[in-house]
Amino acid sequence: MQTVRSFQDEVVPLLGAEWLDAIQCQASIAAPWIAGRRHLCLVDCASFETMPRLGTTTAFSFDPHFKEQGFTCIP
Prior knowledge:
Blueprint: H1 2-11, H2 22-35, H3 42-54, E1 58-60, H4 64-68, E2 72-74
C-alpha cells in the first residue's frame, strides 16, 4: 500500500490528460494505414499527433516507433 500511496502522491500530480478533437482522432486512426504499417497502435499514433502540437520532443518509451518518428527516447 505504501507504493500505491507514493505513486498517488508523487507521480499522479505530474500526469495530465490531453483530449483529441475529431480531426486529431481521425488522423490517429488513419496513421497506420497511411504509413503502411501493421504494428503501430492507436495510442502511439495519437501520441505522434499530440506531442508535436504540445512541443514535446522527448518520450519515456522503450518503443522504437517513437525514435523512428524523431522523438528523443528515455531511457
